[in-house]
Amino acid sequence: MEKLGSSPAASPKSLPTGAVGPADELPPEYWQSLLVDPRVDGPDPGPGPSGRTLRLDQIPKHLLRMSCRRCARIVEIQKVDAIRLYGRDAVWQDVGQRLLDNTCTRRTGRHEEDGCWPSYDAP
Q1: Residue ranges in the chain assigned as alpha helix (H)
Q2: Sign of dihedral through CA atoms 101, 102, 107, 110?
Q3: What is the pTM (predicted TM-score) of this model?
Q4: Mean pLDDT, to the nearest integer, of 40-61?
Q5: 12 preceded by cis ω (within 30°)?
Q6: Dihedral in degrees, nearest 10, Cα atoms 64, 69, 70, 74
Q7: Chain centroid to CA 40
């Protein structure tokens, strides 16, 4: 028993600390791990504008898809149909939002909570 008590594994410095609570300050190691984590900035969009800010005539795919993060509904439209309905210069983000809003089933009457929350899967 004396051996176990005097071993470095039982020293007060190596004893586990309690769980960090909401009012406790986070250790600097946590913040450093966030700063060096490559996933913090999200996926690398590559050169050029992101897919949702492209005009319809700039999108290479023929099937456009967006989903709602709120109700998990998915809406798809072919690029030629979107161009026919909204024009070549329409921005994909605006078109997708309109398509979701036209078929939204989550109407609460409050502006902050109304409508769908789009997630653009394509282009």
Answers
A1: 2-6, 28-36, 79-86, 92-102
A2: positive
A3: 0.51
A4: 68
A5: no
A6: 30
A7: 11
